[in-house]
Amino acid sequence: HVQLVESGGGSVQVGGSLRLSCAFYRVNSYCLGWFRQAPGKAREGVAAIYTAGGNVFLHDSVKDRFTISLSGAKNTVFLHMTGLKIEDAAIYYCAANCRRGYRAVLSGREAEFDDWGPGTQVTVS
To answer: Is the Cα dihedral 11, 116, 59, 52 positive or negative?
Structure first.
C-alpha cells in the first residue's frame, strides 16, 4: 500500500533553516506536495512539484525562502526552508498522487492529492 513518512521537523529560531524529508513507497512520483496546518487554521499548500513537466507551485508567502526537490533515487521529496518566520510554524504534511497532473500541482489545493503522510511539527520561536 501507499506510504509517505515525513521527517526533519523540529524547533528553530526565527531566521533559521530546516530541511523536511518525505520518504515515499508505492507512490507515483509525478505529483508531490507539501502542505501545512497551523492551529486553528485550514491546511494550505506550501509547495508542490509535477516532476514530469517540471512545474512547481510555491505559496506566495514562501516563494523566496522555500524550495521543493526530488531525490535522485526518486523516492524522497524535500522541502528546503530558509529564513523561517513565526508564521511558518505548523504541522507539515507530505502529499502525493494527483489526477490532474500539473494542473493539480499548480492549484496548490489539498483536494487534488490522494495520499498523505502523518505530518511533522515545525516550531519557530
So the answer is: positive
